[in-house]
Design a protein that fits this description.
By secondary structure, the protein is of the alpha+beta class. About 45% of the residues lie in helices and about 25% in strands. It is globular.
Length: about 90
């Protein structure tokens, strides 16, 4: 399953997630800080989406109430909900 998410409150404009069941195959950020977003993408590849959600949910960027990792957690939650409820 490929899921597209539009982040809110971050520099990135889109997060594209490829899932195989609950396993993250690939994550691509459009925009954002290239080093950080590519690092996050590499770290989460092959991981269980629920584990990533638990680890990244609530991460803040400076004084912002969210961050690219937090938005990835939200995107994964939505993707898993969509896959479960079609």
């Amino acid at each position: 399953m490929i899921y597209e998410y539009r982040p809110h409150g971050t520099c990135s404009q889109r997060i594209t997630i490829e899932l195989d069941g609950n396993t993250i195959k690939q994550v691509r950020f459009t925009g954002g800080c290239p080093g950080n977003t590519s690092g996050i993408s590499r770290l989460v590849a092959g991981m269980d989406a629920n584990q990533v959600i638990q680890s990244l949910r609530g991460t803040r960027c400076g004084h912002k109430p969210t961050s690219c990792p937090d938005q990835l957690a939200l995107a994964l939650e939505e993707a898993l909900r969509e896959e479960t409820h079609g």
